[in-house]
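#lab-general

N.A. 3:47 PM
ok so I finally got the sequence cleaned up, no stray characters, all 216 residues accounted for. can someone with queue access submit it? mine expired

B.Y. 3:52 PM
send it over

N.A. 3:53 PM
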Amino acid sequence: MSGLVLHSYFRSSTSVRLRVALNLKGLAYGYVAHHLRKNEQRSAAYLALNPQGLVPALVLEDGTVLTQSLAVIEYLDEMVPEPPLLPRDPTGRARVRALAYAIACEIHPLNNLRVLSHLKSVLGASEDMTAAWFRHWVVETFGALETMLASDARTGCFCHGDAPGMADICLYAQVLNNRRFDVDMSAFPTIGRIFEVCSALPEFAEAAPDRQPDAE
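B.Y. 4:20 PM
back already:
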């Protein structure tokens, strides 16, 4: 695959996910930044590309636009099978998807920027209240996720075995995001261990917010 263009924001955890996946697949891509706090993702030009006005979006060489980070990750896994980001067996795939969705579907929708902005601008939440909201929904899911990982023999160096996959990608991006809100990770040693293993890999480290061209 060539000629890929990633529409991204350096601090977006969903953008982090897709950057990691592209790196693990060894795929080069162009980078177009959209500053979310300046609402650049709501420009007419970008809405014509992605009507949801969300990042990331991946534009293929033929102009096809792919959206929603996990859908794009699965597309990449189908098109570039090695290294796999999902297990080959159906039960393993279901487990990895469940771990990934716990973060992508249970934490992220409640804690993304547009929700936090709504809490402050419309409902009058203070910075402290907004941060407490963020931490509450992380802890609510991370408690269960820690048990799911720590109690299952299929957990290895990574969430599922000894190679990184889609669940690790989601975990890594979320823990990075947690640091901005001072989430106490002491109750989640397995999650913390997996995060550190991921952080040591260049494919993950190079996808981190502070390594992006639009980092502030």
